[in-house]
């Protein structure tokens, strides 16, 4: 039986990851529930004043999205490492770059895209202006893609450790800072009536750079973790 083509192989990997996530709905719901709970609790600490909530809404939503992404980054390769299928992935004839990209794409679909789609609801709870909602969704789609790709590097380096959750946060959190800065800046600019295009363009450039480089670093990290 001949090996599947590269596109078919990558699609199978994405489908496999999505099916496994559906069978373990807690992994999908955890970041969403965390997002919802923090947004609901935030007005209790800051106060219910609509102007105060609106002024902090952009940064608050982006910080919560970043922390939600961190909650799931450690699990990208953990299950496959525990059952031994990750070693088989490294031995597959298909380039590891594209296999890793399929894993990270599935993670982005499950976390980043879902958070971006529900973010307008929570933004309205924080009194964010309606004209800023498109910038919020666009920035979260691009920024969460960058965070999933960068988080894959940390997940690959710590997959062989029993308690790598804290270590992965220390490794990748500094790399998340530019995404947080430009993502929240795009939302603030749109909320104040200014164009958010420049900030979104920078996020798009980060996304393209992460697609080009992050899977290479992730593949190298997986080889190091498996050989160690």
Automatic annotation (TrEMBL):
Membrane-crossing ranges are: 28-46, 52-71, 96-123, 135-159, 166-187, 199-222
Taken from the record, one Pfam family name reads CcmB
- Lineage: superkingdom: Bacteria
Which InterPro entries does UniProt cross-reference here? Answer: Cyt_c_biogenesis_CcmB, Cyt_c_CcmB_bac
Q: Does the keyword Transmembrane apply?
A: yes
Return the similarity comment: Belongs to the CcmB/CycW/HelB family.
Source organism of this protein record? Mangrovimicrobium sediminis
Single GO cellular component term:
plasma membrane
Designated name of the protein: Heme exporter protein B
Q: How does it sit in the membrane?
A: Multi-pass membrane protein
Q: Name one GO molecular function term.
A: heme transmembrane transporter activity
Q: Print the keywords alphabetically.
A: Cell inner membrane, Cell membrane, Cytochrome c-type biogenesis, Membrane, Transmembrane, Transmembrane helix, Transport
GO:BP terms for this protein? cytochrome c biosynthetic process; cytochrome complex assembly
| Summary of the function given for this chain in its UniProt record | Required for the export of heme to the periplasm for the biogenesis of c-type cytochromes.
Determine if Cell membrane is one of this entry's keywords.
yes
As for subcellular location, the record says: Cell inner membrane
């Amino acid at each position: 039986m001949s090996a599947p083509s590269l596109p078919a192989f990558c699609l199978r990997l994405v489908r496999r990851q999505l099916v496994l996530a559906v069978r373990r709905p807690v992994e999908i719901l955890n970041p969403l529930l965390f997002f919802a709970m923090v947004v609901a609790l935030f007005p209790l600490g800051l106060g219910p004043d609509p102007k105060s909530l609106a002024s902090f809404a952009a940064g608050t939503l982006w910080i919560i999205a970043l922390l939600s992404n961190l909650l799931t980054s450690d699990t990208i390769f953990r299950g496959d490492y525990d059952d031994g299928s990750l070693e088989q992935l490294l031995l597959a004839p298909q380039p590891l770059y594209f296999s890793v990209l399929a894993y990270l794409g599935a993670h982005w679909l499950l976390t980043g895209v879902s958070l971006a789609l529900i973010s307008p609801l929570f933004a309205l709870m924080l009194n964010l202006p309606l004209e800023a909602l498109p910038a919020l969704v666009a920035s979260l789609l691009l920024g969460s893609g960058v965070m999933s790709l960068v988080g894959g590097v940390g997940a690959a380096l710590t997959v062989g450790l029993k308690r790598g959750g804290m270590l992965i946060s220390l490794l990748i959190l500094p790399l998340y800072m530019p995404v947080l800065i430009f993502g929240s800046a795009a939302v603030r600019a749109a909320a104040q009536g200014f164009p958010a295009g420049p900030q979104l363009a920078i996020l798009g450039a980060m996304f393209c750079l992460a697609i080009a480089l992050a899977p290479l670093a992730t593949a190298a990290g997986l080889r190091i973790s498996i050989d160690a």
